[in-house]
UniProtKB/TrEMBL annotation:
E.C. number: 2.7.13.3
Domain HAMP per the UniProt entry, residue ranges: 347-399
Record-given protein name: histidine kinase
Pfam families found in the cross-reference section: dCache_1, HAMP, HATPase_c, His_kinase
Transmembrane portions of the chain: 328-350
Keywords: ATP-binding, Cell membrane, Kinase, Membrane, Nucleotide-binding, Phosphoprotein, Transferase, Transmembrane, Transmembrane helix, Two-component regulatory system
Origin superkingdom: Bacteria
Organism listed in the record: Paenibacillus catalpae
Signal peptide: none
Record-level GO cellular component terms: plasma membrane
Subcellular location: Cell membrane
GO MF annotation: an example: ATP binding
CDD domains: HAMP, PDC2_MCP_like
Catalytic activities: ATP + protein L-histidine = ADP + protein N-phospho-L-histidine
Amino acid sequence: MMNTKQRARSVWSKLTDMPMERKLLAVFLVAITLPLTFIGYISYTNYTSSIEKTTVSYSNNLMIAMMERMDDYIEDMMRISSIPAYQADIRQNLIRSNNYYEQRQEMAGKSDGKAVPDDFNQLLFIQRGIQSSVKFINNIKRGANVVYIFDAFGNGYYSTETGAVRLDLEESYLRWKKASESSSGEALLLGNEAYISNLNSKKNALTVVRKILDDASLKPIGLIAVDTDFRVIEDQIIELNKLTHGNALIVDDKGGMIYDSDKAHSTHSIADQVMQTAGQNGHFYASVQGERQLVVYTTSAQTHWKLFVFIPEREMNKDSVRIRNTTWAATFVTIGVALFISILFSSALTKPLRKMMRLMRSVQEGNLSVKFPVRNRDEIGQLGLQFNRMIMRIDQLIKDIYDIEAKKNEAEIHALQNQINPHFMYNTLETIRMFAELNDDDSVADMLSAFGQLLRYSIGDVREKTTVKAELEHVRHYVEILNYRYPNRFKLELHVEEPFYSVPTLKLLLQPIIENAIQHGFDDSKPVMNIVVQMDKTDQFHLIHIIDDGTGMPPEVRERLNHSFNGGDVSSSGRSGIGLRNVCERIKLHYGHNYGLQVLEGPFGGTEVVLKLPLPWSENDK
């Protein structure tokens, strides 16, 4: 199966092989589609982000204003609950009521279970006194449903003019009393409560409860409860929902629900999760019943209640979606018009090119009499003009080649007549060697044998492959002949393990390097010049080290040679290192640019040349 790289190459090959007309169409479409798409995407993204920021800011301002109004309203209710602390009449009547019911309890205990008659005159006096104060309190602030005042025995006094008195007043009193037991007279705001009024209507109210204390003893003498009309807050929430197109939710500081405009209460669980981690205000996105919604929240500084507004993302981005759809429609229309114009232009541009292709096929078949009609001086016209000149030049070159080939054939015939067969030289050297052996001249025979092997190896095709073992044998013959000329002046040490003998390599790589070392590094002051050939390998290369203890090489010369080996400018190096550069160039041409030579300072003060050759499995990796 094709891997990813091969599939990518296949797709790219199909694209590059497309006709020019289709390429131009593709370029025109891409040049138009990409900018329009990018501009549309950026515009939609920026507009959506701007709408989100505006919505969050606008909703925050509305919510903060609403919370401030709600705080003011609750603050007024708390102030109303403090009126008994400043009204002596209320406190005196509560003390009378407490004394009256305390006396009745004492009398009931002394009467052995007999009913104690009520003092209606005193009860009426107490009731009228407290109820007149309640009426006064009710008239202070519009929106207070009912104000209840209880004595220490739980007897309640209230005004029935509002028609919203609780039917479960006794149960409510017990809850209010329990909630206020731990307080020391401060106002307590209780959560939203639903109740049935004496008119059998269902109502909701926020209740502010406060103990009534005696001025002298500071002991509780009663309790006041103010039921606030929740419709005042509800009307504000309904108005907020209209402005934000969302649903509002109010929870207290303990996570209890005060109000939820979403009757299904699907948002309450999200509010519970946020209560533990959310700050005073902020916003985030949440999924409510599978729909993504923007949640904006703020916190009351007085009650610490949190107001959440859930705004559906589709509602918030309604305008941006409309703009996006309009942009896409305009983009498709523009692409359609651009496609029509692109077809016209690409056809006009490629028609002359198709004609030139037909003429080239005709030339390929051998017809050199064709001519491209040049009508314009644009690039295609200039190309056609150069095409006509090229055809004329090709025709002339063909005639010249015929003449040159005729002369070359004649010269080769003369060269063949004068050529000396290399085997004649081998046979002649072998004959001389035989005569030297017959005359007991072993030195001459050995020298001629070494020279014959050297000549036979060198005159062969230099492009053919060989092995490391053959190269080492050739080097050994070369140094052996040198030692005949300069007796015992050169010592060759071959430190190559047998597994490396069969490594394939090119011919005549080592001998030019050793010849260069002897020619430029031979030191007359030393009796013997040592030359060591070593071989090892790494994960990437076979390395052959040729080390001598000659005069060495100046650092700048080494640097210049290594620079030339890596493809640098060699114009300033003169003729020095030509043999080394030739060897390096042969290696690079055959194996690739990852291989070649490197010149180092030798460990014995001379020079070390390192040949980098491929491993067997990467020999053809270029």
